[in-house]
Amino acid sequence: MAQLDRNQLRTNQTLILLAVAAALLLGHPAPVAAMALALLLGLFGPDPLAGARRLLRVPDHPEREDVRPHRFARGLAGGMLAASALLWSPGHSLPATLLALVVAALAALSLGSGFCLGCFLYYQLKLLPHRLRRN
Questions:
Q1: Mean pLDDT of the chain
Q2: Helical H runs in 27-116?
Q3: Which among 12, 48, 116, 134 is least surrounded, fewest beta carbons within 10 Å?
Q4: Element (H, E) at 59
Q5: Nearest to 35 by CA among 98, 100, 97, 91
Q6: pLDDT class of 135 with cuts at 50, 70, 90
Q7: C-beta atoms surrounding 27 within 10 Å
Q8: Number of neighbours of residue 123 by Cβ within 10 angstroms
Q9: Exposed (0-12), middle (13-18) or buried (19+): which is 90, by Cβ within 10 Å?
Q10: Residues 63/8, Cβ–Cβ less than 8 Å
Q11: CB 77 within 8 A of CB 103
Q12: Cα separation of 25 and 27, whole Å?
């Protein structure tokens, strides 16, 4: 099992909240698009957002935990933010805003309570084949 840095997860969730807030205040998708890109790039290599944690001097908090559910959640958040950024045009601003707000709300939920809906969905999807075989 790999090491998972809890403080990096919290930093990323905070940055998601800030990016969505900045995009809504500016009325421009650039912060959401940048966050989507960072989240999606982090799926394939080092976390581009790790520099922010070091810049803010947030200490490491590694735990031995399965990283796959968190990667799945990261991919969902990155995909939804990318869709939001792409939809951000005069004719589609409501769906773009709603997508960004859903991601922000889920980041806030995880940040405040520790419950990660993306991780929960990962485990539910993982159990689906077993459930289907039983029926």
A1: 92
A2: 30-41, 50-55, 68-87, 93-113
A3: 134
A4: none
A5: 100
A6: low
A7: 9
A8: 13
A9: exposed
A10: no
A11: yes
A12: 6
CA-wise closest residue to 64 among 126, 127, 5, 129: 5
Tell which residue, 22, 13, 31, has the closest CA to residue 77. 13
**pTM for the full predicted model:** 0.91
Does the pLDDT of residue 91 top 80, yes or no? Answer: no
Full domain range(s) for residue 26? 3-134
Most distant CA pair in the chain, distance: 52
Please tell me the total count of domains within the chain. 1
Q: What is the pLDDT of residues 6-62, one digit of tens each?
A: 889 999 999 999 999 999 999 999 999 999 999 999 999 888 998 888 888 888 888
Which single residue is written with the structure tokens 């969730």?
A: 13
One-letter amino acid at 20 equals V
